[in-house]
Amino acid sequence: MRWDRFFEDLEDQLAAEWEAERAALDSEAERLRVSRLQLRTRMVGFAQAAAAALAIDLVDGSLLEAAVTSVGADWVAARPASAPAALAEPSIVLIPLAAIRAVGAAHGELLRSARAPAAESRLAERVTFGFALRDLARRRAGVTIGTAAGRALSGTIDRVGADHLDLALHDADSPRRAAAVTAFRILPFSAVAWVRVSATTGVITP
Q: Which of 24, 79, 157, 160 has a C-alpha 20 to 30 A away from that of 199?
C-alpha cells in the first residue's frame, strides 16, 4: 500500500508540475500575442463587438464620444454619441489612427478588444485614409475637417494626393460653387484630426 501511495504521489506531483508548466507556457504565449497587438486591432475589436460609445481623445485636444462602426487600413469611422459643437449634428466621423491620443472604454470592453478579432474582410485592410478621402472628393460631399492645431475648416475636398488634400473653403451645408468658395487650403494628412461627414452622404466604409 505504501508503494501504491508512493506512485500515486509521484503521479500527482508530475501532473501538478505539468499543469504549472503548461500554464506558464500559455501565459507566455498570451503575453507574446498581446505584445504584438496594434491599435488598429483593438479598434477592430471594438467595432466587431458593437461596443458602446468610447471616449476618444484626439490630437486637436477634443474629446469625441462615439461608437466605432468600421475600421480601415489606418483610420476608423465612428458615429458620435455626444461631441463638441463642431461635431454635434448627426454624422459620421473619420479619424486617422495617428490622430488618436487615448481611448476610454469600460473595463470589460477593453479586455474584449484585446482578444483576437474575428476574421475581417481583406478589403478593410486595404482601404486607406486617402482612399476614403478620394471617395468624398468624388461625391463632392461637404465636410468639416478638424486640424491638429484645433481649427475646424468646412468645405469640399477638391483633390487628394498621396499625403495631402486640397480643400475649397465654404459653408459645409452649401454646394461647392465658385461664388461660395472663400479660400483654398492644402492640408497634409498629418494635420488632420478628424473629418465629419453628414450621415446621409454614404461615405465608403470597409
A: 160
Q: Is the dihedral of CA 146, 147, 148, 151 positive or negative?
A: negative
Closest CA to 49 of 104, 108, 94, 127: 108
Range of the structural domain that residue 16 is part of? 1-36
In this predicted model, what pLDDT tens digit does every residue of 46-89 receive, in sequence order? 998 887 789 999 999 999 999 999 999 999 999 998 544 444 45
Instruction: Indicate which CATH number applies to the domain containing 86.
Output: 2.30.30.100
Q: Are residues 21 and 73 in the same domain?
A: no
Do 2 and 87 have their domain in common? no
Rounded to two decimals, the pTM is 0.79
pLDDT exceeds 70 at position 123: yes
Closest CA to 149 of 198, 190, 96, 102: 190
Residues 26 and 105 in one domain: no
Beta strands 100-104 and 164-169, pairing class: unpaired
What confidence score (pLDDT) does residue 87 get? Answer: 46
User: Residue 201 belongs to what H/E stretch?
Assistant: none
What are the pLDDT digits (tens) for 10-19? Answer: 566 666 666 6
pLDDT of residue 51: 72
Looking at the fold, whether 143 and 189 belong to one and the same domain comes out as yes
Q: Is residue 25 part of a domain?
A: yes
Helix (H) or strand (E) holding 63: strand 63-71
As for how many domains the chain has, the answer is: 2
